[in-house]
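From the shared-data thread, chain only:
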Amino acid sequence: MGRIFRTWDLIGQSIAVLKSDKELLWLPIFSAIACVAVSVVMLSGGALVFLPQLRAAHAARGPAQFTPAMLLFVFLFYLVNYFIVVFFNVALVSIASNRLAGGHAVLNDGLQLAWQRKGKVLEWALLAATVGILLRALEERLSWLGRLMVDLVGIAWTLATFFVVPLLASEDLGPWEALSRSAELFRETWGEELVGGFSFGLIFMLLALPGLLLPLYGSTLGPREMIFGTILAVIYWLLLAVVNSTVQGIFMAALYGYAITKSVPPGFNPDDLQQAWQPRS
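Structure, as tokens:
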């Protein structure tokens, strides 16, 4: 329960910062729109190129064989979307860090900084996409014990890379330098062996549950009301996803500032930041 309460406090503290800079909400929206647009274009093009091959394999009643060209396309699709997400996260964290330090950065400042870092962002996206696809491929091919080991490696990777986005925004490091520096900040601030002290995903999953009541209640009134309730639920979940992404970006900026300076950003509780990760007992 302490983990849930601590996460709730951190979300409240991050939302308090968000209230003073609501334009940060636009960055996850821009990111989602860009990802959807790029996905539609790439998947449409991929379908035109590869669909005849898949149909031929289906007509021959044989298993679909992924050619090297198909695998390269999947990797490029993953890479482009990852680049977009990291690009807008760098913009978000840079603005949040500036505001927490008493600055007056605006949306355009964050986008300009992210554009200046586009080369480093692409390099990091390439490295992260490669690691992500390798871990997924290993997980699908190994036994349950191997999958467990891959999951542990994935957790270690997630922790080691937590500060990569703030480092890209503030120090303009290359991917390997950012990875090394991110892991170093963790060891210096919270130690070697850690357990989670917060879970934004769990809290926002609980907050998403009330959205299920809208279509359920509408179904008791009639088909039109159920459709209307479903539309409201989707809008509610989309808004919740935007707030979740923005709040996590603000918290990442605050935690990075704490790890770098060992001082607590305005609006945050020092105990919550110190216990964001706890030593494994």
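The chain has a mean pLDDT of 81.
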